[in-house]
Sequence to fold (391 residues):
Amino acid sequence: MGEILKYLEQQFYHIFNTTPDVIVKAPGRVNIIGEHTDYNHGYVLPMALEQGTYIAGKKRDDSHLNFYALNTNRQSIADLNYPSRNPIDPWMDYIMGVSYELRKSGYKLSGMDGIIVGDVPMACGLSSSASLEMAVLKLFEALGNFIIDDVESAKLGQRVENEFLGLKSGIMDQFISRCGKEGHALFLDCRSLEYELIPIDIPEHTFVIANTNCPRGLTGSKYNERVLECNDALNTLNFVFKKSGTHLRDFTLQELIEIKDKMNPISFKRAYHVLTENNRVLSCIEALKQGNIKKVGDLLNESDYSLQKDYEVTNRELEVMTDIARNIEGCKGSRMTGAGFGGCTINLVETKYVESFIHKLIDKYNNITGRNGSCIISYPSEGAKILKIFS
Fold:
């Protein structure tokens, strides 16, 4: 940690010829299980990564947001008083979106100088965007001398996605980036926003995150298409059962199966995934608490098959990677993680086999696909926090 703090301080001085006021961090996340359930008011079980977004910032006397992204060597300036999208540097949209939502909520903000660096792989389903949002929010809090409730912080981040960026995403990514705790996953009820920290006490096993390095093809329109298909299933369920449910969470799997013949086949498949995935999340939590690693692995596999066949959000690279993984010694389960159509997989592997697992997985994946896959290992980490305050 000391090295990244020193690096940020040096870079800030190099760019702005002064020292920052504060350095903050917010983590990325990997979702252990519970995919495409959050915007259906379902259950999710993510964990915060050790990898994250770091920002060094200093308060300004005007309304300018002057930021430099070290990962892309791009500098961009915006004005708090004129919120707008940035087609050239889209990463600025998250900064502007957070500031816009804060000002709508009545917070008085000043401009700031900032430098950003992140080690969450981008565009691969590990929530580099939510990590940036929550780091920016923590920076505004630190420089503005206010603190927002954790749940409200996650809601604000979701509004940035839904309203400022126009993506109909759920609240999971922002929630875990803000509320994660070292050594724990986070079981979140995306309806009530009640959550429980679930200890990840499995020293003989490790979660290995494998990146297909196939950029996600899930555009906003594709993501929103799945939302609409779930809503179509919901409308049919409401009509047949004469209810007024707002999300698929309002119905049981039994009810869905009862009216299969009355529902659009595609919509049925989408709803079937969501409702069975909710059950898998609950089962996974119990299995983790009981130390039943085989059951956890089986549930990861079942989730992946459902995401392939029922929700149809995988692609060739993801399917090749999970298939290879399941046939390597020491792997107990594998599934795609994140929104899909590219990105990453999460693999539960016996710790003693991790090194050989990674070597075999990447070597065979690269040979089959012609891509350059990669792996990262992370243990459950802390949520957004201030790393250093400069006097």
User: Anything to note?
Assistant: DSSP finds eleven helices and twelve strands in the chain.
